[in-house]
Amino acid sequence: MKACAFDYRRPTQLGEVREWSASDDVRLIAGGQSLGPMLNLRLAQPETLVDISALSPLRGFDEQADGLMIGSAITHAEIEDGLLPDVTRGILPRIARGIAYRAVRSRGTIGGSIAHGDPAADWIASLAALGGEVVLYDGRRYRRLRIADFVLGAFQTAITPGELITAVWVPRVPAASRFGYFKLCRKAGELAHAIGVTWRHGESGEARYVIAATQGRPIVLEHDVADDRDHWMASLERQAPGLDALERQLHIDALERALTKSETL
Amino acid sequence: MTATTLTINGEAVSRTIEPRQHLGDFLREQCHLTGTHLGCEHGVCGACTIIRDGRPVRSCLTWAVSCEGAQVVTIEGLDQDPVTARLRAAFSAQHALQCGFCTPGMLVSCRDIVLRHAGRTPEDRDIRHELSGNLCRCTGYDGIVRAVKEVLADEVFLAGIAPARPAALQAVSMPSRDDMKVTDNRQNSSEATTASRETEKGREITSRFTLDHHADGVWQALKDIRLVVGCLPGAELTEVDDEGHVEGFFHVRLGPISAKIAGEGEVRWDDAQRRGELEGRGRDSRSDSRANGALSFSVEPSGANRTTLDLALGFELTGTLAQFGRGGLIDDIVGSLIDQFRARLEAHLDGRTMKRASGLNPFTLFMMAMKRRLRRWTQRN
Amino acid sequence: MTSPLLSAAVPPMHGVGAHATRKEDDRYMRGRGEFIADIKMANMQEVAFLRSPVAHGRVNSITPPEASKANVFVAADLVGVKPIRAVSALPGFKASDQPILAADKVRIVGELLAACVAPDRARAEDIAADIATDIEPLPAVHDMLQALQADAPLVHDEWGDNVFQQTFVDGDIESIAAGAAVCVEREYRTSRQCMSPMEGRGVVAVWDRRLEQLQVYTSTQMPHIVRTGLCESLGLTHEQIRVVAPDVGGGFGYKGILLPEEVCVCWLAMHLDRPMRWIEDRREQLAANANCREHHYRVKAWADARGKLLAFEADATVDAGAYSAYPFSACLEAAQVASILPGPYDFLAYRCRAISAATNKAPILPYRGVARTGVCFAMELTLDAIARAVGREPSDVRLEALIPPEAMPFDNITHKHFDSGDYPQAMRRAMAAIDLPAVRRRQAEGEADGRLIGLGCAIFCEQSAHGTSVYAGWGIPMVPGHEQAVVRMTPDGALEIRVGIQSHGQGLETTLAQVGEQVLGIDISRIRVVHGDTALTPYSTGTWGSRCMVMSGGAVAQACRELQDRLIDIGAHLLEVPIEAVTAGRGQIATEDGRSVSYDEIGRVWYLRPQALPAGVNAAGLEVTAGYKAGRDSGTFSYAAHAVVVAVDPEFGSTEILDYAVVEDGGVLINPMIVDGQVYGGVAQGIGTALYEEMAFDRNAQPQASTLADYLLPGATEVPGVRIDHMETPSPYTAFGQKGVGESGAIGPPAAIVNAINDALSPLGAEVCQVPATPRRVLEAIAAARAADAPQPVDVGIATGASA
After folding, report:
1. Which among B129, B168, B321 is the nearest to A188, CB-wise?
2. Nearest by CB: A187 against C121, C125, C712
3. What is the ipTM of this complex?
4. What is the pTM of this model?
5. Domains, chain A, ranges and CATH?
6. Whether B95 contacts chain C with CB within 8 A
7. For C359-502, where are the E strands, in sequence order?
8. Which pLDDT belongs to residue C57?
């Protein structure tokens, strides 16, 4: 089970990424914990890997008044270990701890996980609820978009050839927020079969609920959030037609469990 | 081949390395350090866990060429390490190993657990969670959990050990959010009604949607095989004969996975019923996988200038691509395919031309969704 | 011939019964074990196999690109190599030829099509990826019940059906059934699994020009049997082949086979005259070699009003896959089902039909517990169904029918000879350990989180160390019966023990040394156990069937005793007293008045100073080959009672194990620490069978998992702490009263856990009858019960191919 031959490049400047990654047969790689298995299994056979894991602009953070910019090559383990300023009242380290296994978290990155667009990814589900954004850079300009909008479907994202995620924006979680996260796995470290996330701001009433691991893009319920299973089910039926009745039930139950277990932060 | 310099068990090593060689293979085959074992080569079993820059990592998911400047420590390099020595004594006393194959990776992980939990008394549950990335098929984990607890309870020993202190991250100045273009891409659910199910012939995904065109025109368009195939993103025709026999390629992408299925098929139309079917079979030689599939379509007027189109895409995979438990993900991809088919067909009927995409390009998909939204929005106003 | 000087001289810290830490640990913990993939040779080439992507198909052509033609070998190249044939002598058995490389037809996904040779594995895989194949797919047999239908495709065209063999045991059910108060009827299914040792298979072969001998290193449990099989396929004689099993990273039955890969790599090494290596990767293992545990049962049982089992009838099917694997054959498991289904119960009437069905899947291999895991599942779920029908505690219902201790030794309804044990006591102790009344109270109170608590139990026996008569009846290529050991004292008084079995986690380098220590009083640090090498050890059928401690342990004990007699002979001479005047032990021969001569000294005299030897000394010297053959070869019967408490989440269908207790009786324990290790490890595998592991197949017999992300092995979070309690009823038939106990742990968990789940679900009227009891299956059972508003076992008929 050995990967097909590929070329390997490691840019030292952010600006070099674009010139090397504009072709179809190039894959960006950061921690490589999702892409690595696909390469070893020969499911992915790119001609070139462009390793962005050591680019220093992607390895830092920038705390701002209303949130935190996290460099995309920050690893899950670094988040778990509390090496970033805590703007989420402990949510990020808690989510990080539930991703795969410690040795995978040592290398896997927040940006890489989001770029991979796996419907069962913890960061996509949780940051969609927190109103997180990705920052994309194409060598000339930066643009940003909500994580919920960035993920278009299973392994499909709004990233364009030549672009990379440079940072992930996490808004500061205000006091008196309630947050709940529940993922259904058959065993520890396994990819989730269903994820439910709830976030509600006590004062403004602003809220975002997410149903994820639907095999497609996450379902975000916001302006019309209601703690109403029928309403959730209707959204799920419309937006995740591939799920059978039992799977739909599990997703609704997961969201309900997240809500039940949600805590004021 | 890429020239790489790294430190392995304290010694500087400079080699030219084939980029595709993972660190586990590099250590075992080039450096003759066979204590690092390969159990799955996809990151699940943990047998190949080594230490890179102070943290446990999977050597099977680490490219050796990416270790330029890295400090790598393997089980052989832990021979004199005091924590590992203490763990070895505990492992033997608690019968924490049987066949010994998972043991080197297990010890590397346990060492990390001890270093991060020294001075605390974690619950069994927490130790088990920490161990969840290392599979053992012999011991039932009981002895391993006891061994870790034994070492964490040895206060005298731990007093002389420096706990893990990960390197701090740097605060940097990042571009201001205010200066960035915001791509507002609120997604609306597709107007199509899509469903999927298991049938006797495999997986079938059906979709029904309405086109603002006369049924005659829609049917005429669908009778043009080049047009039908042209509307299927990633499909490419190389031959068509009068009998409806076609040959060509179908290029599908699922994230980093891409398959180019070369195949052949037959098209049939039933003018009376206004139904048609394109049935095909092919093989992706890269993954040695085969696919059979049928795209059927039927056209029915649903108003003066409105037509309901029913699409059904049934498919069945064999070979490598079929041998995964997450087949449901393919539904989502096929659903996107149908969305694109419909958008392209609509574009054709509207007299617009669309850029041909090679494969299921996410960007194209995104643009389609945008255009669809925009059109709906303008119609609404 | 027991030395009168034996055990008394040995403190309990040593020898049989000691908690000795393992001699083999240190090398593994320092990364210095030598596993098959660690072996490299100069000029070595790596092999990658091109495997069939389809389960059933006609091979029209296999065409390598011009550039790599010289590096690709197909069936036509293997001139003179015979297919693998494992024929059983059971009446009606249909033989299959398992090709080394497929020639005209493929019958399994993953069957070998071509061998690709290159300097490294990645390049060998590159070559395989470039080979063009033309395989015409044929309808596949994806399920054992489908296989038996009249219109099923044929796996072997010439057979006319898909039945390897069927076994009948008949009895007069009807007369007993007529008077029974209760009758229950159920259908059960156990899923196909991949045994998944952490290390896969692998082989390194080289032709040794000096010895004119094929040297084969292979990750096997049975090096001698592999040698015999290689002789048959390659047309060589035994002395032309040496097979070495290096450190082996787990077996569990997965490595109890002669592989087509082994034959092919050996042929390549001879044909190309250079070392060849093939290492199985995890995808090959999962996609091509899920090869065990798949049973189906239709069961009917009758009991009296107290739930005492009276009669049992079963229609059993075992999915045997496409070929008869060497040496255990395609029918070993089904033939065992019919004979062991009664388990530890004494009842009046029994009938069973067991079919080995051929399907387009990997050939079945006996996995830890062999047929017992399925059989125990069918029997123990049925006993719980009876208990529910009569409204009594499941453990009480079992006590009604378990073989009582006063009946031992006992011949049961299928003529199995139970050597010893107190089964009812094991059951009672298990209930005490799990605290039955407390669990029932907790159940009655209910859980704050809405989960349902359930208690389950299972009791079963593990026949091990089978002898000749049992296997001769099956007439398979390998019939065990006796076992030899060579013991040799070195000139410095240390002991070498040579045995033909193979240790791959069982700790036999330690436990066999403990046997030597027990007899000779030599510290285990001075005893070396040599195993896994046909050139260095006596012939043996290898490590399987929990036979090593009984058979090899018995042989080592006997050889050590004979060696001790020779030591006494020389020692007494050196001490200038008659042999009656000395005692042996603690590494020396001593007189009553305190004079002694050490074994070191005796060793030096024998090898280096023969002038000091007595005149009539036994010229065979300080090396003894002795054997063990049980007086009764019906095997030992270890047994265990498992009790488990689970919490089932009725919303998600998930099961958490809250408590697990095992009462194990493995006879006299040679090393209690190692026996506990076998139980812990076995239970963990049993939990895998019960809740996680399943290789599903679609209707084309495509396996639905090829990575450990799809095929779930239990990790540390899925396995609970297990509490073990021992009974030690000696076997009357073995050297120290020991019994084989390597498999027991893996037998009970599926039955005990699913019984616990069903106990938890009983307020909902739902019942699960299939393992793994996945969340989906639990939820489907609940949904079915709600729909029917009555107990409704979910249909476990022909598998649909959908992965749960």
Report:
1. B129
2. C712
3. 0.96
4. 0.95
5. 7-51 (3.30.43.10), 57-171 (3.30.465.10), 177-264 (3.30.390.50)
6. yes
7. 410-411, 417-418, 452-464, 483-489, 495-499
8. 98
